[in-house]
């Protein structure tokens, strides 16, 4: 259970937007303070989502043996939803490519453009709002028949991995600030150019995992 949840959480953490924002904050006037507030917002949002999701799924009784079909049906449904989301992202990117570029920025982009600890905290909350890939990792824990102690460890691990692209660069910045900023700037250019395919790839991989897991569970339960 831990291994599967950690693997899905790691895939969910591969967010180009989260890393791009981290790079911006680490290159700001107050890099460590701003990035720490960004991390605090991310961890707060992930923790609230994890606890709320766990309570809802556990209340539904999906971890009970007599809910085998419902448990694996949920996983199959999440997998299919992820595939639909993946195709929707592809379609949206094609529409944007065909349309003239607009200069208008979204709320998060405007807040990131003027870095401050307070705005960084809010950005952390907004960027780490509910995602299907995060829910896919959480449902593995919520639908497993595990002890309270193991469940707490698993949820903490999911939250930690979900914010990986925030705390890991910050940790490197504390050890070697100059080198970290240079590497992030270089990686930033590559990420901006390939963020779309990377995001779609992660969505389809997690979707395929959930479809295979859900289908095999439903077949085995017959």
Protein described:
It is a single chain. This protein has 222 residues and is mainly alpha-helical. It has one domain (2-220). It is built from ten helices and no strands. It is globular, with a radius of gyration of 19 Å. 34% of the residues are buried. The model has no long low-confidence stretch (mean pLDDT 86).
Write the layout of secondary structure elements.
Elements: H1 2-13, H2 16-26, H3 31-59, H4 68-98, H5 107-113, H6 117-127, H7 132-142, H8 148-162, H9 164-175, H10 177-220
Helix pairs in contact: 1-7, 1-8, 2-9, 2-10, 3-6, 3-7, 3-8, 3-9, 4-7, 4-10, 7-8, 9-10
Number of domains: 1
In DSSP terms (H or I, runs of 4 or more residues), the helix count works out at 10
Count of individual beta strands: 0
What fraction of the residues are assigned to beta strands by DSSP? Answer: under 5%
Separation of termini? 22 Å
Q: What percent of residues adopt helix (DSSP H or I)?
A: over 70%
What is the structural class? mainly alpha
Radius of gyration: 19 Å
Principal-axis shape:
globular
Mean pLDDT: 86
State the low-pLDDT regions, or none. none
Largest sheet: none
Q: What pattern of helices and strands is seen along the backbone?
A: HHHHHHHHHH
